[in-house]
């Protein structure tokens, strides 16, 4: 891997640079990498997903990682590019799981945050208004599971958490929904990456009602939390249910992955707060945040892989028992 492939560790890339980088990975690792356009943004930019597999002919259970749904969260883009780079370079983890990664779900907003307003969060739907203050839908409130609650989203276009006129109204949200529709059957672990907050959170976001298998979701997240702490002593993440750890959020992706696709291990990870202002970190923060997150993500992948391998064995054993009984 040449030095140029590391460019995003020294500066925050523009969207065209992210696309170029993904293309390069596909060219360099044709056996393991393929790109897929899962849809288009409001302004017509392609939304690209990178699929990384040990063997493209036989898909395995997989992890889906989504970043950049909120435009200003630039560390999420660089962090997943780093994760991609690590996976293609050290392919051992691919023996366990395939990876479906969307490094920038909100390309219009991302461009806007580079060119005009560093703190832009939503997409670039004008919502029928001339006035900028009414622009944008919070894509992470536009999904159909638990959609539309006033406690956790807003019907006001001026709000930072405007949920859009109806669920999945936004093309960017539709893109992710269609990727899940096609590949959901393989996905065993879903991670929505945001920044900042030092948290690993599981559903639900739209209600404080606990999820029945909370313990499994908690255990997996704690493994990641501890691995990160072990690798980087300053690492300090909180684990918990989304609605109680931060705030209620209605129509978010992690709830959707769990609620609509029954992906048991579904998380929202808020990255390490880098610097005084969490939303405008210096480029020098990119490497540390990326490295720390990678440790956590890989730990979760291993946990989920083990979880399903063990459970499949138990399942296979119970079937043998049943069959034996029939012969008694
Ligand atoms: Zn966010």
TrEMBL record:
<protein>
    <recommendedName>
        <fullName>Peptidase M14 domain-containing protein</fullName>
    </recommendedName>
</protein>
<keyword id="KW-0482">Metalloprotease</keyword>
<keyword id="KW-0121">Carboxypeptidase</keyword>
<keyword id="KW-0862">Zinc</keyword>
<keyword id="KW-0378">Hydrolase</keyword>
<comment type="similarity">
    <text>Belongs to the peptidase M14 family.</text>
</comment>
<dbReference type="GO" id="GO:0008270">
    <property type="term" value="F:zinc ion binding"/>
</dbReference>
<feature type="domain" description="Peptidase M14">
    <location>
        <begin position="11"/>
        <end position="304"/>
    </location>
</feature>
<keyword id="KW-0479">Metal-binding</keyword>
<dbReference type="GO" id="GO:0006508">
    <property type="term" value="P:proteolysis"/>
</dbReference>
<dbReference type="GO" id="GO:0005615">
    <property type="term" value="C:extracellular space"/>
</dbReference>
<keyword id="KW-0645">Protease</keyword>
<feature type="active site" description="Proton donor/acceptor">
    <location>
        <position position="270"/>
    </location>
</feature>
<dbReference type="InterPro" id="IPR000834">
    <property type="entry name" value="Peptidase_M14"/>
</dbReference>
<dbReference type="GO" id="GO:0004181">
    <property type="term" value="F:metallocarboxypeptidase activity"/>
</dbReference>
<keyword id="KW-0732">Signal</keyword>
<dbReference type="Pfam" id="PF00246">
    <property type="entry name" value="Peptidase_M14"/>
</dbReference>
């Amino acid at each position: 891997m040449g030095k140029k492939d590391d460019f995003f560790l020294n500066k925050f890339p523009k969207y065209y640079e992210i696309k170029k980088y993904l293309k390069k990975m596909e060219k360099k690792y044709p056996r393991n990498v393929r790109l897929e356009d899962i849809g288009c943004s409001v302004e017509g930019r392609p939304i690209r997903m990178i699929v990384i597999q040990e063997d493209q002919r036989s898909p395995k259970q997989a992890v889906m990682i989504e970043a950049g749904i909120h435009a200003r969260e630039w560390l999420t883009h660089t962090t997943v590019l780093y994760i991609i780079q690590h996976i293609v370079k050290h392919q051992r983890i691919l023996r366990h799981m395939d990876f479906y990664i969307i490094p920038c779900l909100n390309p219009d907003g991302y461009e806007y945050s580079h060119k005009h307003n560093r703190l832009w969060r939503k997409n670039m739907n004008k919502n029928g208004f001339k006035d900028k203050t009414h622009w944008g839908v919070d894509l992470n409130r536009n999904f159909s599971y638990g959609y539309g609650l006033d406690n956790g989203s807003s019907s006001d276009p001026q709000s930072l958490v405007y949920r859009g006129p109806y669920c999945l109204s936004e093309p960017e949200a539709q893109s992710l929904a269609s990727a899940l529709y096609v590949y959901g059957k393989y996905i065993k672990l879903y991670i929505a990456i945001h920044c900042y907050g030092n948290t690993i959170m599981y559903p639900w976001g739209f209600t404080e009602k606990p999820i029945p298998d909370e313990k499994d979701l908690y255990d997996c997240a704690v493994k990641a939390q501890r691995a990160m702490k072990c690798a980087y002593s300053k690492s300090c993440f909180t684990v918990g249910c989304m609605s109680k750890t931060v705030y209620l959020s209605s129509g978010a992706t992690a709830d959707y992955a769990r609620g609509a696709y029954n992906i048991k291990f579904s998380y929202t990870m808020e990255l390490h707060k880098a610097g005084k202002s969490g939303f405008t970190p210096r480029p020098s923060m990119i490497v540390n945040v990326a490295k720390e997150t990678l440790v956590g993500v890989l730990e979760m992948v291993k946990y989920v892989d083990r979880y399903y391998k063990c459970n499949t064995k138990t399942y296979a054993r119970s079937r043998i028992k049943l069959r034996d009984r029939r012969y008694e």
